[in-house]
Specification:
Chain lengths: 294, 299
């Protein structure tokens, strides 16, 4: 029998998994390690796994918690950086899009799945056809529109194109509403519940799972979004983290980039994601299947 | 039980007032930010719009210019090169990881860790690897140096830049893709593997005879979705190489961006976007067909 053989194959397979996980996590470790290194040490101390003189100064200076003078001494380029504000802006941007888009798309999905009205299938068909239009195509005219409305560098202009709907979310939620049994809604109808009450008090509470899935997908997408907020929300007041990092990098001298500051800023874009993973990791990982593709 | 329902049937329900109220926000959003700009984008592509002046119709001039524009063809070529490098490496790696997870461990922790790069903005991913690959101080070059190799400017050498960007994005998306494939593999009945093991089949045989054939619809779907995403690479390049060195990474998306927002040639940029839209539209149509096919397969 081959049972007693040392399972070489399994050991090799585990080794591959361990290497893959290590290769995935190590760059993040190196990012944090660099962020905790004093800028003056970047040249002398660039290989040890732990910083020789760990410091929080890079976080403090990118968060705008030190004076300009202190920031420059610690390796900053002298340009003003206020990642605390950008972090809040990112939360506002992400929060507005996630909550409102999910709500409006659930309303639309519900109407397409359950309500009867003339033109329903036609309207839905047109909406789904829009899935074929790539974002860059509508991005150019949308930028002109937002600019002409005078909405550049306002949250209104930044969230406008995505806050009301995306065809994918409407499609996804309609499919879900179609799949849940109608008996509960029929019983509620007999109790005199209808319209908004039916949607808000009966249908939504039954749909926590898919709403969370679509909300998470939308939230992650908004968190990562770069080009649109770069075009429409460059100003300090509306600058989100991704845009701030891009601008911070440009301001940093090419020959001698402010790596410790950049890595501190980068760490700030990763931390909220880790918090999300800790609290919703299982949910997030398990909701990812082929219907969750965006 | 049918008695209480039956009388209601003949009068067909019509909820048009409620329905339009429920649809109002989504339809306004759709009309203003999808339908209208789609029409407008096509119109711009037929004009000399430059953002500072009003658009004048110029017919097919932008498209004629495109045909003779070397940078446009170069952008297409560079994009194609990137897509092939990225899709092949990403899919092979993801398939391997998914298979290993499927056959070895159901651990949520492993899966969650593989997902981290996908959850992080591409801007962060780009910066992270710029630092890791820095020619003088980057960790990777320290390792190469220790192995006796010369330090390489991965993102500054014209021949290395594109493969490096493709590798960076493979790193960022392989875990996510693996999880999608893994979810597909979970749908394959366990007993198939058990009976194959009883018949003495090895893991490689099970992979080629069970996993691969039964995963095919989902694999095809994931492939098309990755392909569509891959064509739209922008953030990583905007951060790391900015289209350089000497156009080696000036992909189509970046070229559109340059034309529209650096050269203010909105009309010309729109024409390029139309071409890209046609390609991606076709791919999405394929995706929708596959989506339907994979659904009925698993039902």
């Amino acid at each position: 029998m081959t049972r007693t053989r040392i399972p070489l194959g399994r050991i090799a397979a585990w080794a591959v998994v361990v290497v893959a996980v290590a290769a995935t996590i190590f760059p993040f470790y190196w990012m944090v390690r660099t962020a905790l290194t004093p800028a003056a040490d970047v040249y002398s101390d660039s290989t040890s796994l732990l910083p020789e003189h760990p410091t929080m100064i890079n976080f403090l200076r990118v968060l705008g918690l030190t004076s300009q003078q202190e920031a420059r001494v610690a390796g900053g380029s002298g340009a003003k950086v206020d990642f605390l504000r950008y972090l809040l802006n990112s939360f506002v941007y992400c929060g507005l899009i996630t909550v409102l888009q999910t709500l409006f798309c659930a309303m639309a999905g519900y109407a397409f799945a359950r309500l009867r009205f003339p033109g329903r299938d036609l309207v839905f068909g047109v909406l789904v056809a829009a899935l074929m239009v790539p974002p860059i195509f509508t991005l150019l005219p949308n930028f002109v529109l937002v600019k002409n409305l005078g909405w550049l560098n306002t949250f209104a202009g930044m969230v406008a194109p995505s806050v009301l709907m995306t065809p994918f979310a409407v499609f996804f939620l309609r499919q879900f509403f179609l799949s849940i049994p109608q008996e509960i809604e029929e019983a509620a109808t007999l109790d005199g519940v209808g319209g908004w009450g039916m949607f808000w008090r009966v249908v939504l509470p039954m749909s926590r799972g898919p709403l969370l899935t679509i909300g998470l997908t939308t939230g992650v997408w908004a968190w990562k979004d770069f080009l649109w907020p770069l075009l429409t929300g460059r100003a300090e007041e509306t600058r989100v983290l991704t845009v701030a990092l891009g601008i911070f990098q440009q301001q940093s001298p090419n020959a001698q980039p402010d790596w410790t500051g950049l890595m501190a800023g980068s760490t700030l874009t990763v931390l909220p994601v880790l918090v999300l993973l800790v609290f919703l990791g299982r949910r997030l990982v398990e909701s990812l299947n082929f219907t969750g593709i965006k | 039980m049918g008695a209480s329902k039956a009388p209601a049937r003949p009068r067909r329900r019509d909820d048009r007032t409620v329905a339009w109220l429920f649809l109002a926000p989504a339809l306004v959003g759709f009309g203003l930010f999808y339908l209208y700009p789609t029409g407008l984008g096509i119109y711009y592509s037929l004009t000399d719009y430059g953002m500072l002046s009003a658009p004048n119709l110029v017919g097919a001039e932008n498209y004629r210019d495109l045909v003779g524009d070397d940078k446009f063809w170069n952008a297409l070529e560079v994009t194609g090169y990137y897509v092939v490098l990225n899709i092949v490496s990403q899919t092979v790696l993801a398939l391997a990881l998914a298979t290993l997870m499927h056959r070895l461990t159901q651990s949520v922790v492993v899966r969650a860790m593989l997902l981290v790069p996908w959850l992080v903005p591409n801007v962060t991913v780009g910066l992270l690897w710029m630092w890791m690959l820095d020619a003088n101080l980057g960790f990777v070059n320290h390792v190469l140096g220790a192995l006796g190799m010369r330090p390489t400017g991965f993102l500054t050498s014209p021949s290395w830049a594109m493969p490096t960007v493709a590798g960076i994005n493979t790193w960022a998306y392989a875990g996510y893709t693996a999880l999608l494939l893994y979810a597909g593999m979970l749908q394959i009945p366990r007993y198939l593997y058990e009976s194959a093991a009883l018949d003495g089949a090895g893991e490689w045989r099970m992979f080629t005879r069970i996993t691969l054939p039964l995963l095919r619809p989902i694999l095809a779907l994931v492939l098309v979705v990755s392909l569509i995403g891959s064509f739209q690479i922008f953030d990583t390049i905007a951060v790391t190489t900015k289209g350089g060195p000497v156009g080696a990474t000036r992909v189509i998306y970046f070229y559109i961006y340059e034309q529209a927002f650096t050269n203010f040639r909105m009309g010309y940029a729109s024409a390029i976007a139309v071409v890209l839209a046609v390609v991606l539209g076709a791919l999405t149509a394929v995706q929708m067909r596959l989506l339907r096919a994979s659904r009925s397969d698993l039902a």
